Amino acid sequence: MVARMTDAMATSVSALEPTAPTAQTALAIETRSLDAYFGSTHAVRDVSLTFPQNEVTAIIGPSGCGKSTLLRCLNRMHETVPLARVEGTVLFHGRNIYGAGVDPIALRRHVGMVFQRPTPFPTMSIRDNVAAGLRVQLGERLDRRQVDEIVERALRQAALWEEVKDRLKSSATGISGGQQQRLCIARALATAPHVLLLDEPTASLDPLSTQKVEELVYELRSSMTVIIVTHNMQQAARVSDRTVFMLSGEMIETAPTRALFTTPSDARTEAYVTGRFG
């Protein structure tokens, strides 16, 4: 069960900084016998997975199979839901994120998340939306010039700078849905995360906006680990290095994406990727 943390117990951001990759730390995230519950509902069942550094991993499966719940367990968003709890271990560069003394807010600076629907802060400008996450940087004050540089960098990473550079003081709700989603990605990127979690980020977008987000995901692997939940198997095939198939809360199979789609080892995986259910 997740322990309740006090301010005195909270670890600093620097204590969560990953070390340089080694043979032992080449995994960005690892889950060991992970179970997640909503009250008495067992949503994720005994999942043990590894997510290598600088790769894109797609998580696929039918609705209600536990994909999004698993994703939310990787940065402790799951525990924000009433009656939700987690059992098992999640290692971020070898450190148990559910261990005593880990501050979930500091963790989320390193393991960012973008949700299915764009969630810009409606009362903030485009610039202030991107800068919002910088406020949780513990023990560090940034001047306006530094913040502006970070905002520009994040918007460029999200392939949005050229579209909004002349309207940074405008409301974030005044741009298109696709731009809002890339703005939310920029907001997550502003804190320079090591892992980016994407929960069906293109589900509500038009084809052109979807293409831009997919291109962005493909490019981000050079600087971080990306884990994306998607219902779109074609999307998983286009953007990911590895794919995980889940069913009824269980991890059925994980393999390099091409292998999972062409020569799956489990009959249930084959049935799903060939469209016989789901």
What is the CATH fold-level name? Rossmann fold
Let me know the average pLDDT: 88
Task: Identify the CATH architecture.
Answer: 3-Layer(aba) Sandwich
Helical percent range? 25-40%
What letter string, H or E per element, gives the SSE order?
EEEHEEHEHHHHEHEHEEHH
- Low-confidence runs (pLDDT<50, min 5 residues)? 1-14, 18-24
Terminal CA distance: 32 Å
User: What portion of residues belong to β-strands?
Assistant: 15-25%
Rg over alpha carbons: 19 Å
Q: How many structural domains does the protein architecture include?
A: 1
Instruction: Enumerate how many helices there are, as a single number.
Output: 10
Give a summary of the structure in a few sentences.
With 278 residues, the chain is of the alpha/beta class.
Task: Identify the notable features of this structure and list them briefly.
single chain, alpha/beta, four-stranded antiparallel beta sheet, 10 helices
Question: What do you see in this structure?
Answer:
A hairpin with a 2-residue loop joins strand 4 and strand 5. The protein has helices at 67-73, 104-110, 126-131, 144-157, 161-164, 177-189, 207-220, 233-239, 257-262, 267-273, and strands spanning 27-38, 41-52, 56-60, 84-92, 95-96, 111-114, 195-199, 225-229, 242-247, 250-256. The chain has 10 helices and 10 strands. Helix 4 (144-157) crosses helix 6 (177-189) and helix 6 (177-189) packs parallel to helix 7 (207-220). With 278 residues, the protein is α/β, with parallel strands linked by helices. The protein is 31% helix and 24% strand. The protein is globular and about 55 Å long. It has one domain (27-273): 3-Layer(aba) Sandwich (Rossmann fold). The strands form 2 sheets. It has a 6-stranded mixed β-sheet with strand order 6-7-8-3-9-10, with helices on both faces. Mean pLDDT is 88; it is low at 1-14 and 18-24.
